């Protein structure tokens, strides 16, 4: 095939791709009844919102310190509880430790159910059961961490060196002794890394839990938006961004050290 014919072929191919994408867009718009004209008819409000959002109310920052500390405390305590429960469950979720695939299937099924529940939905359910407050936020984070970290941990267990396990079993060690002395030393650094990663994720997630009443700085963000105090919204968002960036950097350095 000549170079000229190749260029023409690619041009036609790209044109067909664009046409197909436009047709899919139009089809999606029709079946969802989406009217994009409504977005532009409210342009005046968009200008007002952005103009006020670009002027953060820095005088309001001192009032954010306490809710921000509560958010970090929620994340830390929730992560600790979630990891604490995840460690033994992750061992039970793999036949490498239990020696019984049916037990492991049961635990993996439970973990699968937990991971399928979105964080905000889980928080909303717990708020409906236990009420509004930081304790509900901690429980939400703990359950979310448990589901996520357990999955990562039992996958790490299944990639270890099996020779120490065989040596432990050959000398008559129990399953518990084998887990403690043959498996735990091989996966400890990975477990610690996953724990810090979970804390990093939870700090970001905990900032929005306040939308459903789970406490923390998200409560103030939600109320500021409801009252249309966009200058306060701006400083809250900036505070959250800086906090998350600092936590991410610290967590990344710790995880690199443990790797």
Automatic annotation (TrEMBL):
<feature type="domain" description="ABC transmembrane type-1">
    <location>
        <begin position="68"/>
        <end position="251"/>
    </location>
</feature>
<comment type="similarity">
    <text>Belongs to the binding-protein-dependent transport system permease family.</text>
</comment>
<feature type="transmembrane region" description="Helical">
    <location>
        <begin position="76"/>
        <end position="97"/>
    </location>
</feature>
<feature type="transmembrane region" description="Helical">
    <location>
        <begin position="233"/>
        <end position="251"/>
    </location>
</feature>
<feature type="transmembrane region" description="Helical">
    <location>
        <begin position="203"/>
        <end position="221"/>
    </location>
</feature>
<dbReference type="Pfam" id="PF00528">
    <property type="entry name" value="BPD_transp_1"/>
</dbReference>
<protein>
    <submittedName>
        <fullName>Phosphonate ABC transporter, permease protein PhnE</fullName>
    </submittedName>
</protein>
<feature type="transmembrane region" description="Helical">
    <location>
        <begin position="12"/>
        <end position="31"/>
    </location>
</feature>
<dbReference type="InterPro" id="IPR035906">
    <property type="entry name" value="MetI-like_sf"/>
</dbReference>
<keyword id="KW-1133">Transmembrane helix</keyword>
<dbReference type="GO" id="GO:0005886">
    <property type="term" value="C:plasma membrane"/>
</dbReference>
<keyword id="KW-0813">Transport</keyword>
<feature type="transmembrane region" description="Helical">
    <location>
        <begin position="109"/>
        <end position="132"/>
    </location>
</feature>
<feature type="transmembrane region" description="Helical">
    <location>
        <begin position="138"/>
        <end position="157"/>
    </location>
</feature>
<keyword id="KW-0812">Transmembrane</keyword>
<dbReference type="GO" id="GO:0015416">
    <property type="term" value="F:ABC-type phosphonate transporter activity"/>
</dbReference>
<dbReference type="InterPro" id="IPR005769">
    <property type="entry name" value="PhnE/PtxC"/>
</dbReference>
<dbReference type="InterPro" id="IPR000515">
    <property type="entry name" value="MetI-like"/>
</dbReference>
<feature type="transmembrane region" description="Helical">
    <location>
        <begin position="178"/>
        <end position="197"/>
    </location>
</feature>
<keyword id="KW-0472">Membrane</keyword>
<keyword id="KW-1003">Cell membrane</keyword>
